[in-house]
Design the sequence.
């Protein structure tokens, strides 16, 4: 198991009050990305967690989930699947609507991204209300995929996002606020 100083990780996350709108405290992860050793230790840690689910693919959520998801996929030599905001994917896609902490949205995935019965791990930077990752799980399951685990760097526990994910999906977050 890789070692990481979770307190150091927590301190690196920068609070941006009233972004993108008044009342939201945005958790800025760019200081994690900007620290090569910290970023590597986060990827190593997420990689260890992902491996436990024995996946063949990592599914990353638009857009910060791509940064962590792609690196974990590379580390474990797994396929990488992007779930994107509506209208961005070039090929035939399926969609799922959800409510965000700040607004409504829809996410999409290519119809051939996941094979029936394939095990995947879902990765995003942050679990807030769980609307986004709930919609992402929905897309994966629509294609017959199995979500072995859902991994997040940050969880905003006061928003109870885990309730929006199916009970059979193990949820793991590195730091909680
Ligand atoms: P939710 O669907 O409410 O769980 O929101 C999760 C998604 O929105 C993730 O992709 C996050 O990147 C983003 N997000 C929501 N709330 C915040 C926040 N307070 N700070 C940073 N990102 C957030």
Sequence:
């Amino acid at each position: 198991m890789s070692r990481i100083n979770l307190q150091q990780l927590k301190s690196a996350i920068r609070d941006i009050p009233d972004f993108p709108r008044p009342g939201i405290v945005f958790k800025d992860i760019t200081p994690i990305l900007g620290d090569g050793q910290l970023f590597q230790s986060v990827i190593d840690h997420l990689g260890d967690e992902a491996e436990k689910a024995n996946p063949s693919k990592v599914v990353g959520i638009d857009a910060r989930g791509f940064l962590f998801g792609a690196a974990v996929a590379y580390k474990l030599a797994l396929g990488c699947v992007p779930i994107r905001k509506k209208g961005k994917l070039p090929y035939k896609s399926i969609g799922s609507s959800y409510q965000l902490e700040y607004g409504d949205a829809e996410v999409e995935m290519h119809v051939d991204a996941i094979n029936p019965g394939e095990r995947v791990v879902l990765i995003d930077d942050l679990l807030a209300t769980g609307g986004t990752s709930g919609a992402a799980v929905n897309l994966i399951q629509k294609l017959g995929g199995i979500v072995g685990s859902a991994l997040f760097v940050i969880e905003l526990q006061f928003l109870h996002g885990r309730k929006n994910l199916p009970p059979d999906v193990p949820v793991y977050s590195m730091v909680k606020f």
Q: What stands out?
A: The longest strand covers residues 146-155. Residues 54-176 form a domain with the Rossmann fold fold (CATH 3.40.50.2020). The beta strands are 14-17, 25-28, 57-61, 79-85, 93-100, 103-110, 119-127, 146-155, 171-176. The first helix runs from residue 6 to 12.
